[in-house]
Amino acid sequence: MARITAGITSSHIPALGAAFDLGKTQDPYWKPIFDDYEWVKSWIKEEKPDAIILVYNDHASAFDMNIIPTFAIGCAEEFKPADEGWGPRPVPVVKGHPDLAWHIAQSCILDEFDMTIINKMEVDHGLTVPLSMMFGKVDEWPVKVVPVPVNVVTYPVPSGNRCWLLGEAIRRAVESYPEDLNVQIWGTGGMSHQLQGPRAGLVNKEFDLAFMNDLVTNPERLRRMPHIEYLREAGSEGIELVMWLIMRGALGDNVEELHRFYHIPASNTALGHLVLKSNP
User: Are residues 13 and 276 in contact, defined by beta-carbon separation less than 8 angstroms?
Assistant: First the structure.
């Protein structure tokens, strides 16, 4: 059967994509971040995942105020990089895994999650920046991707507990897939940041580090954390962290932390990165 072997969290800061694309990865400001991701790039080459379920949020590239799916899943053969106002990123087209994606969609819907099935979608920095951080500059991505966009832009957004339960449903779906696949699940976005208003530039290191700790050892607290706490402590865009709970819920109870990195500032946000192994 297929199995989810590991989970990764990573911020999807658009300025990281710009630094990567413009060859500024070793500039003094960006060097500490890109140097740290060398660890995961080496590790993931050894792991050789067959597919990645990539949980992210769209930034008005594929969706707008006319269509706001809470949970969606991309089932297409491929997903082109989106033009976010300055042209598409110069990165490869993302290759999907339609068979696995349709299986997950069917399993989750029968498991009482109303997934929105997307058969044509462009993907923005929320998805492509994490791929660049993990794989570097490549002619084609070395893995197939199942995109799972989550609405964390327009209220109401899903609760942390609902995200966790979706992660559990995704795990059940993957484990019922008949092909022998090594699958990883990534939760992107965060950490604390606010892009507008009088609190623009907010970063809360204490909150971020506690969140990372509890994601590994005490996720029950995070499942019950109300939206207002994210907004108060982590800023308006800190709500993106609920997507990490989808990843964590898919890993099961027994996880091992393999790698951790936290850095501020990265553009106007805090950057968090974890690699967790799922132990049966």
Answer: no
In CATH, what number is assigned to the domain containing residue 120?
A: 3.40.830.10
The per-residue pLDDT for range 206-241, each reduced to its tens digit, is: 999 999 999 999 999 999 999 999 999 999 999 999
CA dihedral for 234, 239, 240, 245, sign (positive or negative)? positive
Q: Which tokens go with 272?
A: 């968090």
Q: How confident is the model at residue 70 (pLDDT cuts 50, 70, 90)?
A: very high
Cβ atoms of residues 14 and 107 within 8 Å: no
255-266: strand order across its sheet: 144-149, 51-56, 182-188, 3-10, 269-278, 255-266
Nearest alpha-carbon partner for 91 in 60, 134, 61: 134
CB 81 within 8 Å of CB 91:
yes
Cis peptide before 121 (omega within 30 of 0): no
Contact (CB, 8 A) for 1 and 176: yes
| Catalytic site residue from 97, 125, 227, 263 | 125
DSSP SS3 for 23: coil
Catalytic residue, chosen from 12, 97, 193, 273, is 193
Q: Is 193 a catalytic residue?
A: yes
- Answer yes or no: 59 catalytic: no
Query: Which element (helix H / strand E) includes 244?
Result: helix 242-251
**Omega prior to 265 cis, within 30 of 0:** yes
Answering whether pTM is above 0.85, one says yes
Pairing, β 116-118 against β 72-74: parallel
Domains held by the chain: number = 1
Write out the residue range of the structural domain in which residue 199 sits: 3-278
